[in-house]
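[job 4471] stage=fold_predict status=RUNNING
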Amino acid sequence: MNKENERIFTVPFLMVFLMSVISGSASYMVNPVLPSFLISRGAPMEITGIISSLMSLVALFGRPFSGAASDHFSKKKLMVISYLLSIVCLLLYTKADTVEKIIAVRILHGVAFSLSGTVSMAFGADFLPLSRLGEGLAYLGIGTVVSTTIGPQLGEFVENRFGMEQIFVWASVLNLICAIGTWLIPYQQKQKKKEKFVFKAENFFAPELLMYVFLICMLSVGNGILLYYLKDYGTNRGIANISLYYTVSSITTVLTKPFTGKWLDRKGIAYTLYPAFVLSAIFAFCFAKAYALPLVLFASVLKAIGQGSGSSAIQADSVRKLGLERSGVASSSCYIGMDLGNILGPAIGAFVISGQGYGFLFDIYALLLLACIPIYWLYSRKQTKES
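[job 4471] inference complete, writing structure tokens
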């Protein structure tokens, strides 16, 4: 393959990256204010978390269908449809005057979120050479980190200047920009078009990726725990400025993801996953023992490298295993693992924290991460023998 065909930063890929940042920023504008918005609409405080998580729950069940659609229909058109559906949902939020109506909109929004999240990775992969797939998907991951920084700040600006409801309007405008921008991307699917969609298991889920689903779930459990309990962890341990964890983690991710992606493309997934789980386990051990900010920030660096390199490696190798013709199923399988981790983390965390505390929780999590190393070694050894 010549150098021209191995380029990552083509115009279409850069447009996909930009649309990813813009749409992600729109989501992170809305998410932080949703509990307050629900309360303003009469929802009791105790159910705001359940309603907020409805979108993720619907997305979890919708992933297999989104993956199947991605492999059989135009990814470009599916992305445009997902953005348009998001616009409708965002505008409906402003008109919903009861909790029941908001729940209905949240469920519909989950369908759009499932479609865009699943298809976006497969769509981006279509513009990347297979030899540099890990590096390319790592750059898309950086786009997500950038949007987590831009979105909340933009949302706060809009709320302070124009009011809470205008956040949904501004977010819908950003999605409209994404719909138009995506439609303008020159695109031709790499895989052969399938003539007819058939309802069979392999079109919805790839059993050969079960190990990867398990591994990416284990990495994501830590995200679920920290998403809900980081602030309480800081209060419990007497650690001020605990939110700096996210700042250091984001900076580390942006600086290291391109290098870990290149490492994956050159060395292979085993050389990426083993260090990823070791670093993630050390992060958990540090959190179990930390009572001061420096150790927390050190742990955030380890987790950013471990989680970032491990998740990107699994995503890239899933596409390589199944091929571009099944990249949608590969993407949905990875996101199912992430969704499960994000759900299991807070659920298990609430039970363990109330009984044993944070130290026990993170010690157990570290041991589980270390246990993934021999599990994957046995799996890869078996795969080598079979091949």
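[job 4471] summary: The mean pLDDT is 83.
[job 4471] exit 0
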